Amino acid sequence: MAKTETPRRIRGTQDIFGDEQRRFAHVLSTFERVRALYCFQRVDIPVFESTAVFARSLGETTDVVSKEMYTFEDRGGDSLTLRPEFTAGIARAYLTEGWQQFAPMKLTTSGPVFRYERPQKGRFRQFHQIDAEVIGAAEPAADVELLVLADQLLRELGISEGVTLQLNTLGDAATRDAWREALVAHFEAHRGELSEDSLTRLEKNPMRILDSKDPRDRPIADSAPDIDAYLTDEARAFFEAVTAGLDAAGVAWERNARLVRGLDYYRHTAFEFVTDRLGSQGTVLAGGRYDGLIGSLGGPETAGVGWAAGVERLAMLVEPHDIDIEGKVAVLPVNGASELAATAVAAGLRRGQVVTELAFKGNLKKRLQRADAQGVDIVIFVDSERWSAGELEAKLLGSGEQVVLKDHGSVDIFDSIRSLAFATRMGLPGDAVTVSGGQLGFIGNAAVEE
Ligand code: ATP
Ligand code: MG
User: Fold this and answer.
1) Any atom of ligand 1 within 6 Å of the Cβ of 68
2) Which residues sit opposite 355 in a β-bridge?
C-alpha cells in the first residue's frame, strides 16, 4: 500500500513558533499598550468581505486588486475576497454599523491579511498587519496623532534607530488632477525609455511610475515634475500643518517627493517608515489620508487617515525578546507515589499566578535537565509524605542552593514560591533573598523554614 504523503504548508504561509513567536507576540502586545496610551479603540472585523468592498475602494487598477487578491465564490455563489488590508473593511463596518454617530473615531485592529505575491524574505501570502485609523476627522491634527503614535510604537519596540519617516503630500483633488496631467505629459515625452509595466501604468495609474523599482524607469521618474508647483493654497496649508505638528511632537521626518501610495483613494498626507535593514522589503509601516474612500463605497463623503504595518517585518527588527520576567517554576515528583501530590502543588501554584511547568515523563535526572533547558528558575521537589505535612523542597537552579519551604498558614506557601521565583529571575542579591543552611528569608513575603 502506498504511504500517505504528509501534507505540506502552503507556499507563502507560516507556522510561527519559538523565538519567532515571542518576537511576534511582543510586537502585538506593545501595539496594544501604545494604542491605549493614545485612546484608540480596538475593533475586530471579518477576515473576508464581498469582493466589491476591496475592488471599489482600492481601485481596479491597483496591484492589490488586479493581481494579489484571494477571491473565490462561496457555496451560495457570492464573490468573496480574503482581506488584503484592513482599511476597506473598517470603512465598510463604519457604514454598516452606523458609526457616523461616534465620529471622529480612533480605531486599531490587527490580524492576518492575504495577498497572492511571490514569497520571499519579509513577503508572505498570509501575513499579519497592525492597523490604526482615524475616521471622520478632516483636520491635519489627526494625521499628526497617527504619525506620533507610529513613532512611539517603533521607539518602544526599540527599532526607531535606522528607521526613517518619509513624508509626502498628494494634495487635494484639484492638485492631483493638475499634477497628473503634468506627469502624463512628462512620461509621454519619454515613452520609448519606459519599462513595459510603466507603459501600462501610464494608461491606468501614471503616478505609480514614480515609485517603480525598474532601473529603466528611474531616471525618468526622478526627473518628473514635483507636486509642489501644483499644490493649491489649501493643500499646501494642510501639509504645513502636518509637518508643524510633527516638529512640535519631536518626531523626525524627511520629505520624499517621489513617495506615492499604491491605492487610488489617497489624498494629502502619504508616508512610509523605511529601513535599509530588511533588504528590498524596507517599508515597515505605511499609510496616508484617504478622504475619498468612504464615498467610493457609497457612503457620505467622510474624511479618513490611517496606516498599517507588517507584523513580520517589525518582528524581524526587534531584538530577541524574553517575555518571562515573572520567574518560572518546575514541579517534580520525587517518586511515582508523589505524582498526584505534584499535580495538586502545580495546580495551587498556577492558581496563585505562578508560571509553572509540570514535566510529564522521564526520570528525576532527565526532568531536572529539561527544567534547566527551559529556563526554569526554581525546581520544587514534591514528596507526597512531606507534602501532607505542608512541606516542599526547592532548588534554586542559578546558585544550586536547596531550601525547605513550609506552609505556615499565615503565609501561603504558593505565594512565597512566587516571590522567590520572581526574586531569583530578577537576580535580586543576598539582602533580598537570603539562603543559608537551609534557612530562607525573603523581604516582603517571608518563607522561612522553622
Ligand atoms: P510593498 O511595497 O512591500 O509590497 P505595500 O505598499 O504593498 O508594500 P501596504 O499595502 O502599504 O504595503 O501594507 C502595509 C505594510 O504591510 C507594508 O509596509 C509591509 O510592512 C507589510 N506588507 C505588505 N505586503 C506584505 C507581504 N506580502 N508580506 C509581509 N508584509 C507585507
Ligand atoms: Mg505590495
Assistant:
1) no
2) 328
Ligand sitting nearest the alpha carbon of 67: 2
Q: Say how far apart CA 278 and CA 121 lie, in whole Å.
A: 8
The structural domains of the chain, ordered by start, are 18-172+232-320 (3.30.930.10), 324-442 (3.40.50.800)
Residue 302 DSSP symbol: -
Task: Return d(Cα 434, Cα 390) in angstroms, integer.
Answer: 21
Q: Which three cell numbers mark 107?
A: 480605531
Side chain identity at residue 400, one-letter code: G
At 376-427, the pLDDT tens digits run 999 999 999 999 999 999 999 888 889 899 887 766 888 888 888 888 887 7
Supply the angle between the helices 51-58 and 87-96 in degrees, to the nearest 10.
Answer: 110
Name the nearest CA neighbour of 52 among 78, 86, 85. Answer: 78
Predicted confidence (pLDDT) per residue in 143-184, tens digit? 999 999 999 999 999 999 889 999 999 999 899 889 999 999
Task: Report the atom number in ligand 1 closest to the C-alpha of 125.
Answer: 27
289 lines ligand 1 (CB under 6 A): no
| Dist CA 116 CA 81 (whole Å) | 12
Asked whether 387 and 348 are in contact (CB, 8 A), the reply is no
